Amino acid sequence: MKPRITVITLGVDDLERSLEFYRDGLGFPTQGVIGQEFEHGAVAFFDLEAGLRLAIFNRKNLAHDAKIIQTEASPSEFSIGHNVSSKEEVDKVMQEVKEAGATITVPAHETFWGGYSGYFQDPDGHLWEVVWNPEWEITE
């Protein structure tokens, strides 16, 4: 298998609320909800960089599609890393997500490994880390 991840899908409880958070609050580009004509098909895609897409899909529909039993959500299963080019940009993004309605779990701070980061949760509890790593060059 080639390491070719093109879509990260988040199961959400309220598709419209999550659409508003990512589209209106964070400014992620999207065509909005599509697939509503299908019984378990309503989904929204957001275009990210390098051809990657973020999808939001109702949690019960994701379980149905994958043929698994829906379980309780756990924000500690994984986090999505949003790397930025400076400490100041970490602070700026953390303020933007707070204004968009995110829950700040860890304010921006100096890390033990020499970077600078903070954590937030989206409206469904998905965990994001906004991070500046002095060893990684971020190109715009």
From TrEMBL:
Q: Which residues form the VOC domain?
A: 4-133
- Name recorded for this polypeptide: VOC family protein
